[in-house]
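[READ THE FOLD]
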Amino acid sequence: MHDVIVVGGGPTGVMLACELALQGVEALVLERDPEPTTIVRALGLHVRSIELMGQRGLLERMLPLGQTYPLGGFFAALTAPAPKLDTAHPYVLAIPQTVTERILLERAEELGVELRRGCEVVGLRQDDDEMTVELADASSLRARYVVGCDGGRGRVRGILGVDFVGEPSRNDTLLAEVALSAPLAEIMATVAEVRTTQLRFGAGPIGDGYYRVVAPAREVARDRSVPPSLDDLKEAMRHAARTDFGAHSPRWLSRFGDGTRLAARYRVGRVLLAGDAAHVHPPVGGQGLNLGLQDAANLGWKLAAEVLGRAPDGLLDSYERERRPVASAVLDNTRAQMELMSLEPGARAVRRLLAQLIEIGEVNRTLTEKVTGVDVRYEPGQHRLVGTHLRDMPLGDGRLYERMRGARGLLIDPAGRCSVTGWADRVDHVPERCDELGAPAVLLRPDGYVAWAGDDGAELPEHLGRWFGAPAA
């Protein structure tokens, strides 16, 4: 019997399996598709995900394979300067999802995670002690827990009967990597002209005469499982730009819609949902992949504690309590961004107004924090740091995130007044200098969020117990 079966081998599922492995919990990943996808569904990582990669020692692998850009102008593509955010990584990392997936898969292999491709889940049965996962080939597997990371059209949520509340797509957009015959200067000039009004159109060179092209579809697809054709793409390009630039030889074609849905529940007994299986929304602002990775970081250590029998009451349920409101807020900001990108006169008027307001520094910073996830705060406490995420900062002779690669709790205690006796198997005690800490001592969860801050070591055991369970004998 497996500890955890993760259904879905995309970034969220593989990241979750890695987080579980770091805690000593075995996870089997089942992926329906027989081969890795070549479709680039996401183009980069925002601040919170960049920080997560830094905490797990993966950022140095990613930086040479991507490109960093300033943070300004990501809310509905409104022009704005880069605001100052509370992070040591104030940039967007442009890196194709396929590259991110490859790095995560490499890390999963290093950690001993098993990934089985060509495995389609068709049924689930659960009792008080275990799950039975039924596969399309009539075989079955057993596990203590199952996590559905199988996407917006995945089967796990449907098997559970969990409502997917929201609105269907009203506007589809086509996305492709395709060769264009027209000269580069002509393409770029036309794109610039079209984007003065139609912000859902674009074409950018990616080498060897190929471009990544995005264009609004003429109609909403009836069957979203069927990819668009080259003719569909060329028609959409001609409608938006009066030319298809001689498009030919596509590497892949895909579509996305502006449908917005949120799972009514993230947990049903021994089954949980994460990533697009729990929430779907328009890709404006590039938040989808990042939202799923953060789900995995939040869930991994909590589910591991449950499997290992040391989770305090309510810890696993705090996953939904913390992450579902975050997803709901992302759904709202993507709804707003889609409206601001509409060609309707009223929407254009609102966009012009917001273009003026975003020149106000606080407005710009607030909208940027929404897109990048920097505004996320869990369950505030008495100290202003509780529930916030700590940026990377100097710690002793190194840096904070270097001490978080094992996904353990961390007590930063420069004065050496506190103790993790009883929890040393789960929490590292770091009595080293940290001038930027903002409190005499801070207890960090494995996902980098502050569980406690203060100077009263006598109250620390209560918070250690709340987040890390009973002390060891």
